[in-house]
Predict the 3D structure of the following.
Amino acid sequence: MNCQDISKLIYQYCDGEVSPEENANISQHLDFCPYCQYICELTMLENEVLRDKDDIPHLSPAFTSLVMSSLQSPDNNNTKNRFSRFNRKVWLSSMTTVAAVVALFLYLPHPSFFDLNIPLYNNASIHEQSSSNPSIAYDSQTLAGHSNLTDSSKSVDSKDTTPVAPPIIIKTAPVPDNLLNQSLFIATTESSAEIKPTVTLDSSRSIYYDRATESSSISLRPQNIPDRLNFVQTNNYENKTVFDYTSIDGKECLQITLVPYIEPTSGSKTEIKPPEQDPLTVTKDIQIADEKITVIFSGNLPMEEMTILADTIQFPDTPSN
Amino acid sequence: MQTDEMLTAQTLRGEVSAFEELINRYKNSVFAIIYRMTGQYQEAEDISQEVFITVYQKLYQFDNTKKFAPWIHRIAINTCISALRKKNKVALLTFDESFLNQHQGEESFNYGNPDIVLERSELRSEIRAALNELPSSYRSVLVLRYQLDLNNQEIADTLGLNKENVEVKIHRARKALRKILVHKWEERGMRYELPGY
């Protein structure tokens, strides 16, 4: 190595980023070259200055509260802009879903099939309906949650703006040719069995047929959520779906994550992480028809309540306990 | 302990305390970046506040599958550069050769033969002053590397570059710093040397 080679590598050398071989060669050269020793020492001094944090003054202790107060200030024009953008998005989304509802009701041959009086976006109402007439509640809920119908219901009934958890799709089944000309249908036990005879279906099971992709799917949505928790949002990832709930005061939160079941264990099991861990997480494997999924509950609900919730969670396609 | 990503999700659900926690976690690193870029306490504090307000407003754009730290540090650097530009304090230079080209031909110095020997503390002050003269694009990459101790990949994530580009840019920034230093000494008729030589 000559001085020119060293000058190319000197910064990496001083940062400890050269290979052991280069390191040995550079060190050897430095032993007899005062010019490169000088450059190396200057570089090390520059490093010291670059890394030095002693001259950075301490931030005011009130900094956090200053930021928080400016965020909550009504004069924050930027915040207004954010919400106006948000409202514009919501408005466009609502208009789209309203259009979808109108188109759907015009297309369906027997719109009276749906019991529209059932409130679909209130957990307590769903429980009441489920206990009095589970079949109707399941069908309506599943249908409403599908393909923007839930949001449409919300848009039509502007008095209750509580969002509702949309269902997730857990699987698809091949659709027989004689059903391909339908855009949407509700499967009865018989027609569902026709689609996939190996599946033991509940009478209330809903199947959605997507004409564009020529596939059918089964929709799911968590039930039994405590009434005080409202649905916030759902996020769909490649292998999981996450439902977020929060209490009105924002102090309690619950996340329900659905992932494919992969552990080679049999039967249902509940796992609880040690209570000192924050947040508390409860994991439960659930059988839904012929599918098994793992449901992960996490949040800051009391451990007892979280465990009960994990043991009693239901989905529209879960056989009633 | 909750992750940054959990806190961002909670903030989006309206939990103010979660955002407060995020501020407490990142205020020092954000302030350090901005203070190093501006060199003035009050200005750095004001811009840091602006950064957190921007983060709060844009939180809905944050991809929760990615790391929060590079995202907020990127906002800090961009907000800072933008604020400095408004005050005409920053040359509109990007990561290119233009800065280095201004100081071409300064490689040939008579090293090791000092006319004046600087004390080590003086030399540190000289280096610090030279650092403040660097274009903001160079300064930001050096701050991320040496003040926040980020590796090349983390810097790449923060600045939206690829890892190889970061390596090149750090090297160029270091060379630019050296050239400013040498140029200053040359202007004063000095040859530079460390004590002991």
Remarks:
- The first helix of chain A runs from residue 3 to 14.
- Chain A is about 40% helix and 20% strand.
- The radius of gyration of chain A is 30 Å.
